[in-house]
Design a protein that fits this description.
Blueprint: H1 6-30, H2 37-50, E1 59-60, H3 64-70, E2 91-99, E3 102-111, E4 114-122, E5 131-135, E6 138-145, E7 148-154, H4 158-169
Antiparallel strand pairs: 1-2, 2-3, 3-4, 4-7, 5-6, 6-7
C-alpha cells in the first residue's frame, strides 16, 4: 500500500479552497447586474468628495450651453450635457474627475435637497443593461448610451435615479 504524506493532503485541500475562493470572487465581480466592487467604491468616494465644501463644481451654471463648452479641451470627448429642470433635475454645473484611472466628466444635478452626480466617460459601443445598486446609503444606476458609460450616484431614491436615467436616454 502506497505511503501518503499528511502534507500532500493538506496541499490538495488548500488548492481546492483557493480555487473555490477565486471562482467565487470571479462570480461576484461578473454576475449580471453587478458593478465591479472597486469601481462602485470609487464612484461613491468621488460623490462623497464632491459634497465637501468647494468641491461640487468646477463650472457653476444651469445653462447647458455654458457647461458643455467648459469641458472642451479638458477631456478627449464631449459629454452630453442637458438641463432637466422642468422634470425636477436642475443642472447645477460640472467638474472633472478621475474614475478608475481615467478622466471623467461629472455633471451635477439637484433633486429636491439631494445632489446627483452623473459620471460620464467614453466606452466602445456595446449593449449593457441598466444596472442599479446601493451601498452605504447611496444609490447608483449605470447605463451605456451612444458610446458613453454613465453612472448616476446620489442619496436620492433609486426611483429618482431611474427617472434621470430615462431622461438621459430619451
Amino acid at each position: 500500500m502506497p505511503s501518503h504524506k499528511p502534507w500532500a493532503w493538506l496541499a490538495v485541500a488548500a488548492a481546492i479552497l483557493l480555487g473555490s475562493l477565486a471562482g467565487w470572487q470571479f462570480f461576484l465581480a461578473n454576475r449580471t447586474g453587478a458593478s465591479p466592487p472597486v469601481l462602485t467604491a470609487e464612484l461613491i468616494d468621488a460623490h462623497l468628495r464632491s459634497l465637501q465644501p468647494g468641491h461640487l463644481t468646477d463650472v457653476i451654471s444651469s445653462d447647458q450651453h455654458t457647461v458643455k463648452p467648459w469641458f472642451a479641451g479638458k477631456l478627449d470627448f464631449s459629454p452630453p450635457v442637458r438641463d432637466f429642470a422642468d422634470q425636477g433635475f436642475p443642472l447645477k454645473g460640472g467638474r472633472l474627475d478621475i474614475i478608475h484611472g481615467r478622466a471623467a466628466a461629472a455633471l451635477v444635478y439637484g433633486r429636491r435637497k439631494h445632489v446627483v452626480n452623473v459620471f460620464i466617460w467614453p466606452v466602445p459601443d456595446k449593449y449593457n443593461p441598466v444596472r442599479p445598486g446601493s451601498q452605504q446609503g447611496y444609490q447608483w444606476v449605470e447605463w451605456h448610451n451612444a458610446g458613453m458609460e454613465f453612472y448616476a450616484v446620489s442619496d436620492a431614491s433609486s426611483n429618482d435615479l431611474e427617472q434621470l436615467h430615462r431622461l438621459f436616454t430619451e
